[in-house]
Amino acid sequence: MFSSFSLKARPAETLFIILCISLYFSAMARAQQDQWQQLNLEMARLFRQGQFARAAEVGHRAVAAAEKIYGPGHLNVAIALNNLATVYRALDRYAAAESCYRRSLTIKEKNFGPMHPRVATTLNNLAGLYRQQRKYAQAESLYKRALAIREKSLPADHPDLGQSLNNLALLYKEEKRYKEALPLYNRALEIWEKSLGPDDPNVATVLENMSQLYRELGQEDRARKLQERATNIHRSP
After folding, report:
1. Which of 24, 98, 105, 150 could form a Cys-Cys staple with 122, CB 3.0–4.6 A?
2. Which ranges constitute the DSSP H helices of 154-219?
3. What is the per-residue pLDDT across 1-51, written as a single tens digit (0 to 9) for each?
4. How far apart are alpha carbons 93 and 116 in whole angstroms?
5. 82 Cβ contact partners less than 8 Å away, ≥ 6 residues apart
6. What DSSP character marks residue 114?
7. 63 CB-near residues (< 8 Å, 6+ apart)
8. What three-state secondary structure class fits 74?
9. pLDDT, tens only, 125-144
10. Could you give the CA distance from residue 165 to residue 183 in angstroms, rounded to a whole number?
């Protein structure tokens, strides 16, 4: 007749087993995160090389990997979607880009609320997509919303605020709304000179934009002086 018995692990053995399991899953998680980061790096490399179709394939895999690793509502999914949208824009796949931007926007709004600077970034990108398609009314609405968020949530001299002002001014210039564009350019210039320095490439960009505006207004002297200053910035070491 056999007596009944049970196997019980000692406390130290139990802790060791738990530690091993924890380390195993931690290593797996790190490997998955590394995979997602590598996909993003590969997509960026292909994009810089102008291999947009291949970049889109890798970008799609990066979105799928982020959803699997982090969950569909995680910020990293929003980041991957934003990156993929940028590639789709380069391919003139506007509907696909819009879908990615809107999914990214939804995730950010759920994570941060509707008035967060990260939300403004995606609004700015989506507005740029609409401007690229000459959907000016939709672009203006989103640019204004992004600007309002940044004015409320960022310091008055933050570079991102300058970006919003410059982008909205670009839109107005394209619509030949010059009187509305010029004060926005001036504000962007003031912010970027203060926050980034007078020789920053962003300063050169807004100077060039202002030069084009004055040229369209027939004010060649002003246009030439602004362009000369922008050119000097580009030439500076």
Report:
1. 105
2. 159-174, 178-196, 201-216
3. 434 334 344 555 545 444 444 443 344 456 666 788 899 889 999 999 999
4. 28
5. 100, 101, 104, 121, 122, 125
6. T
7. 77, 80, 81, 84, 100
8. coil
9. 999 999 999 999 999 999 99
10. 9
